[in-house]
Amino acid sequence: MSFVQWNCRSLNNKKIWLHQPPFSTANFWIFQETFLKADDNLSHPNKKFFRTHRSNRLGGGLLIGIPKNISGRVIYSIENDPNLEVMAVEIQSKNLNFIIINIYAPHGFNIASIKRFLDSLSVPTFIFGDFNLHHPLWGEVHSHRSVKALLIGLTIPNFPCLTPLLQLVFLILILHRSLTYLCARLRFIMKLIVMFLTVLLKAIISPS
C-alpha cells in the first residue's frame, strides 16, 4: 500500500504528470490546492476521486484518489472556511478499513478545529496535509504557535482511538509545497514519534 501526497498549486496544467511515477505506481493520491472547480473534469483509468472545491473564492481544493476496485465514502469535510480545508474518506475493501484525512491550512493548522471529529474515530487513520506550520524539529528556524497544541493533541492520552493500542494513526506532516514520499519522511516520522513519547512520559511522570 503506497501513498503520494502533493500540494500541486493547480492541477489543471499538470494532469499529464499523473500518468508517470510516482503517481502511476501509488495506490492512493492526496493532493492539496488543486484549484479545480466543481465542473472541471478529471478522470483516470485506475482511480476514482473524491474532491472538495472552494465555491466562494479562487484557489484551494482537495483531492483524494483511490483504486477503482475498492470502496470509499466521504465522512467529513470543510470546504468554504478561509483558514481550513478538510476532507476525510473512509476506505473499505476485503481486508482493509481505514480513514484518509486530507488537510490544507493556508495560515497554519490548529488541531482544536477538528479535535471533536478526530476524537470520534475508531479505525486506523492516516492524516496528510499542508499545515503551513514551522518548527525546529523539521528544520525551521522559528516555531509556529500551533505546533505544540498539535503535538500534545495527538499524544495517546488525548486521542481516544489510540487508547486501546489496537489502532494505528500515522501523522504525516507535509509542511512544504513539494512532492513527498512516505519513505523519504521516515527519519522525520521517527523524530515525531520520539517527541510524542517524550510529551507522554512527562505527562505521566509530572501530571498537572
Overview of the molecule:
This protein is of the alpha/beta class. The chain folds into 2 domains: about 5-130, Deoxyribonuclease I, Chain A (4-Layer Sandwich), CATH 3.60.10; about 155-205. It contains 3 helices and 10 strands; from the N terminus they run E-E-E-E-E-E-E-H-E-H-E-E-H. The chain has helices at about 115-120, 145-155, 185-205; strands at about 5, 30, 45-50, 60-65, 70-80, 85-90, 95-105, 125-130, 170, 180. It has a 5-stranded mixed sheet with strand order 3-4-2-1-10, with no helix packed on it. Strand 8, helix 2 and strand 9 form a beta-alpha-beta unit. Mean pLDDT is about 75; it is low at about 155-185. Keywords: Membrane, Transmembrane, Transmembrane helix. It comes from Araneus ventricosus (Orbweaver spider).
Throw out a few tags for this protein.
2 domains, five-stranded mixed beta sheet, alpha/beta, 15% helix, 3 helices, 208 residues, globular, Deoxyribonuclease I, Chain A
Q: What structural class is derived from the secondary structure elements?
A: alpha/beta
* Overall helicity: 10-25%
Q: What is the chain-wise order of helices and strands?
A: EEEEEEEHEHEEH
**CATH C-level category of the largest domain:** Alpha Beta
Strand content: 25-35%
Count of extended strands: 10
**Cα-to-Cα separation, first versus last residue:** 41 Å
Number of domains: 2
Specify the number of helices.
3
CATH architecture of the largest domain: 4-Layer Sandwich
Give unreliable regions as ranges: 155-185
Q: Gyration radius, to the nearest Å?
A: 17 Å
**Shape, principal axes of CA atoms:** globular
Largest sheet: 5 strands, mixed
CATH homology-level superfamily of the largest domain: Endonuclease/exonuclease/phosphatase
CATH fold-level label of the largest domain: Deoxyribonuclease I, Chain A
How are strands sequenced across the largest beta sheet?
Answer: 3-4-2-1-10
Write down the overall mean pLDDT: 76
Transmembrane segments: 150-176, 188-205
Protein name: Endonuclease/exonuclease/phosphatase domain-containing protein
Keywords: Membrane, Transmembrane, Transmembrane helix
